[in-house]
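Illustration 12: Amino acid transporter.
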Amino acid sequence: MSLSRNAIGTADLVFFVVAAAAPLTVMAGVAPLAIGIGGVAAPLGYLLSGVVVGLFAAGFTAMSGHVRNAGAFYAYIGRGLGKATGLGSAYVAVISYNLIGIGLMAAFGVFAASTMSDVFGIDVPWQAWTLLCVAAVGVLGYLKITLSAKVLGVALALEVLILLVFEVAVLVNGGGVSLRPFNPAELFSGGAGGMFVLSIGAFIGFEATAIYAEEARDPQRTVPKATYAAVAFLALFYTFTVWMIINAYGVDKAVEVANGEGGADMVFTATASFAGKWAADAMHLLIVTSCFAAALAFHNASTRYFFALGREGVLPRPLARISAHNGSPYVAVVTQVVLSVLVVVAGILAGSDPYTVIFLWTNGTGIIGVMALQALAALSVVAFFRKDRRGFGAGRVLVAPFSAFVLLAVIIVLVVANFELITGATGTVNALLILPVPLVFALGALLALRIRRREPARYAQLTTEEATRA
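Figure caption equivalent — predicted structure in token form:
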């Protein structure tokens, strides 16, 4: 049982990763909050977050040539830190990617309903838009992976283009630019801890290049190239865009605007002011496609985890069934769609707010889960190369990943301490939202130990490259 071989190239992988990050959604929807919390140092926060992610990518891509598995974190962590840790991580990955994807579908419904009403005067409730998104994502997930890459490529190009229009307009029509946001001293004048919660979260999903290694052409070359390209692009693009947002209002006023009544719309307002109303309307439309592209990317990542774990029998084996026509994991696709419908319908019946509850709560759990996986994966790289660096320099496979592990661990502590910035909730609710991550990790680890005791031969094959060809 295997996915389509040699189906996607470097550019396709970059589209999957950058689309999952949803640059327009992050810049228009989250960056104002980061500016309000972190002050004018927000661009530097995004740049430093990119450095942390880059350190992680150095070791992660070095290991990609030795582990090729659609359950990327599962295989990487299992090979470096042991099979029990790997399987525990796999279960965390399954709930994290699924929750982020489902939350994005709810956010799509909110953005679509608002945009269609404001721009075209068409009033359709968010519930209908969300369910339409689930259906469309499911259809694209079932079809050949190359079609998803094309859809993501178009959506990504358009959202990047509209942000470039905004940035050029600020440079041409603005009152000049200030380098003050890049002064390290500014990091200590605002809420840097809370800001890093948001800036590091903007990179969630970049590690997805490894998920598609089984479907990539020449993965030993394409996976590292795509990972570096995606991380570099996101770091520089985020940094420059946030810098332009601040310059659009002026360094002395930007933070005040971000914390004011119109802070949530400051990017749209600035776009209308500097580039024209047409650009702001286009941005409203493209934030809908941005959210859809991100939902599709996380849907595809979720189905690959379902497939990988079904193939190894640690989730129901039918999840590993492949469509003979499209080469897609069709049972995993249907499972993810059904799960999405169940969560969305439960939210509808409970009367939950689609953005502040369904979107923010699911993404809160998902983000902390993925960050924990990144930290463990960084440590697993060190463990994997500790005795034999396999021709790599110590800086790439030992120093960089260990540094990434330490920095990610610090940021995870900041995330937990400032979790309300992600979820909008407090107290018991936040504790309950964090709890599933350690619980499912423990469940997976215990299952691995049970397999080791009862089926030692099968246990030996878990997370290995040989198992992926079974």
